[in-house]
């Protein structure tokens, strides 16, 4: 199990204009270097990065936090080098229920009520994706 409490708090504590500014620079940067992007700007809270029809990362609109499939971690971290304030969480699989968090430690930044004790990246995406 990977406890992501500190990562959530770390990303929420960044003092940058993320969701209305820098996020869109990151999206454009990733698009330019060859990643496909899925993001419905007025509807979704997550940007999904693809490479050859495979999901390689989930980037949170709310805070500068990204979940990266470990197979793509080095390449994506290199691509995001100039955005070194983005909190990175590597995972083996986006569907494995191997994440947990201390809800008391994140309740001021994350509505967690519908997420179980152990969850996957896709569970988190599903429960936090609609604005």
Q: Helix proportion of residues, in percent? A: 25-40%
Order of helices and strands: EHHEEEEHEEHH
Give the amount of beta strand, in percent.
15-25%
Radius of gyration: 14 Å
Shape assignment: globular
- Class by SSE composition: alpha/beta
Counting copies of identical and different chains, the oligomeric state is single chain
Number of domains: 1
Terminal CA distance reads 28 Å
Count of helical stretches: 5
What is the arithmetic mean of pLDDT? Answer: 90
How many E-type strands? 7
Largest sheet: 5 strands, mixed
Give a concise summary:
This protein is an alpha/beta fold and 131 residues long.
Walk me through this protein's architecture:
The protein has 131 residues and is of the alpha/beta class. It has one domain (2-128). Helices cover 32% and strands 23% of the residues. The chain has 5 helices and 7 strands. Strands 2-3-4-5-6 form a 5-stranded mixed β-sheet, sandwiched between helices. A two-stranded parallel ribbon has the order 1-7. β4 (54-60) and β5 form a beta hairpin. The protein starts with a strand and ends with a helix. The model has no long low-confidence stretch (mean pLDDT 90).
């Amino acid at each position: 199990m990977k406890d992501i409490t500190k990562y959530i708090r770390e990303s929420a504590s960044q003092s940058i204009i993320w969701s209305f500014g820098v996020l869109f620079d990151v999206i454009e940067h990733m698009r330019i270097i060859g990643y496909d992007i899925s993001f419905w700007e007025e509807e979704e809270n997550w940007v999904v990065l693809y490479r050859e029809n495979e999901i390689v990362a989930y980037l949170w609109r709310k805070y500068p936090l990204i979940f990266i499939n470990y197979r793509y971690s080095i390449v994506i971290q290199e691509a995001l080098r100039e955005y070194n304030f983005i909190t990175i969480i590597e995972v083996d699989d986006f569907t494995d229920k191997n994440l947990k968090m201390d809800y008391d430690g994140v309740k001021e930044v994350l509505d967690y009520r519908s997420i179980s004790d152990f969850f996957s990246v896709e569970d988190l995406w599903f429960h936090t994706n609609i604005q």
